[in-house]
């Protein structure tokens, strides 16, 4: 039987068998020679046998418990991030076969992780190279476009075409920058430089950045929240995340619309929301809006490249936060970001 390939199990069964044989021998001799008080000897030997068997079982299961606790601690350490753990399996038996399979699984997972890391690094480098190569022609096209606008002041058609050309060049430049940022986040090559930031100041910074556009489009940006709330974050990346949500709200809000940046704190969470009373999101799109390059079939007239929201999600998750959306068609949309506040236990 395979169960007896483990020497410890074999030793346990041999020990139990030896105790039973000794008890049987004592009982047989006591009965055969009609020893005085034979019943007492048999009962005593039976109790001794039971005590010996219990001692053997306790010792065996105690050792098995230690082995399992060690294996669990190694697996827990692996889950915590130590990729170099192994479980000793230098014995025979089913349990050690299981440990061997766990070690094989760890090796396979490590190999997959290294391969995925290499692929992400290659992708990041490739897109970075492409982005840098695109910057020069885009800059040149912007210069040429500016020259055309200056030379065609009295030609309204050319002025209009050059204005549209400038918009498309801006879109291309935004796409290139967002691609570069999101691939860096994916590859894990960005180290977040966290510091304690005031949420009110972050929101005010975003508002000032979009204030001119909002005024030009006849829209209002409001702020709501305590000026005392702070949390640890990378300032530039969080400004990027909130800014993307505000830009998205402006894109989908009509003239006279209102969008509001709100923040509040709970026991262990800082929550930042961006609300608008714009067109809302179609229910069929809600589950897809964080996908890269996703474009709703209902948004043909809205400019966008489909990377703003995925980039925001990547930034929030890099801060160990979560982001969600709630929207009612024709009434508005609310994006909610939640960031955990580290607590000392």
Explain what this protein looks like in three dimensions:
The chain has 345 residues and is of the alpha+beta class. The protein has helices at 7-32, 38-79, 94-151, 156-187, 199-216, 235-251, 308-318, and strands at residues 195-198, 220-224, 230-233, 258-265, 269-276, 322-328, 332-340. The chain has a 5-stranded mixed β-sheet with strand order 2-4-5-7-6, with helices on one face. A hairpin with a 3-residue loop joins β4 and β5 (269-276). The longest helix is centred in the middle third of the chain and has 58 residues, at 94-151. 17% of the residues are buried. The mean pLDDT is 81.
Characterize this entry briefly.
With 345 residues, this protein is of the alpha+beta class. The chain contains seven helices and seven strands, in the order ααααβαββαββαββ. It has helices spanning 7-32, 38-79, 94-151, 156-187, 199-216, 235-251, 308-318, and strands at residues 195-198, 220-224, 230-233, 258-265, 269-276, 322-328, 332-340.
